[in-house]
């Protein structure tokens, strides 16, 4: 199993939880808290992906069907269909048009929230797409990571290795540093 490992190497009196934030493209896809001296792993080779869409129609909140897929390039289309006088909010999956991307299309007249989860992991992408618009969620093996410890945010580091270890340590200036190995 391939996984990114997050290590909190901060100890001592001021050492606190490290709140690691993992971004893929512009989307934060995971938030993992690691205790001082601890570590956590996030699988990066999962193929089982689940998606659902949410919107509003007047006073009513609508939830679409849940769709499952394994491809890293798909198009998800949220649409409201009329069926025998009733409206049905559906999420359809079709082949992707962009390499390493999930394209979320909203054909409805109100904003739609797309929620995409890798089954069995804390990986979750949530994006809002305005009416008659689309958004792209990257599935490329390229991430950015930051950590927040004791209210101090580290600089982001780039990660392309799906088996990388990201370690937060205290620096010489009272802040914290991330290293990738």
Plain-language structure description:
This protein is mainly beta and 181 residues long. It has two domains: 3-44 and 141-180, Immunoglobulin-like (Sandwich), CATH 2.60.40.10; 49-138, no CATH class. The protein contains no helices and 18 strands. The strands form four sheets. Strands 2, 3, 14, 15 and 16 form a five-stranded antiparallel β-sheet that branches. Strands 5, 6, 7, 11 and 12 form a five-stranded antiparallel β-sheet that branches. Strand 11 (112-118) and strand 12 (124-129) form a beta hairpin. The relative contact order is 0.24.
Give the secondary structure arrangement, pairings included.
Layout: E1 3-8, E2 18-24, E3 27-34, E4 39-43, E5 49-57, E6 60-63, E7 67-69, E8 74-83, E9 86-95, E10 101-106, E11 112-118, E12 124-129, E13 133-138, E14 143-149, E15 152-153, E16 157-159, E17 165-170, E18 176-180
Parallel strand pairs: 1-17, 8-10
Antiparallel strand pairs: 1-4, 2-3, 2-14, 5-6, 5-7, 5-11, 8-9, 10-13, 11-12, 14-15, 14-16, 17-18
The number of distinct β-strands equals 18
User: How many independent structural domains?
Assistant: 2
What is the straight-line distance between the termini? 17 Å
Helix content: under 10%
3D shape: elongated
Specify Rg, calculated over alpha carbons.
Answer: 19 Å
Q: Low-confidence parts, pLDDT < 50 over ≥5 residues?
A: none
SSE ordering: EEEEEEEEEEEEEEEEEE
- Give the strand content: over 45%
What is the helix tally? 0
- Mind summarizing the main beta sheet? 5 strands, antiparallel
Backbone structural class: mainly beta
Overall pLDDT: 93
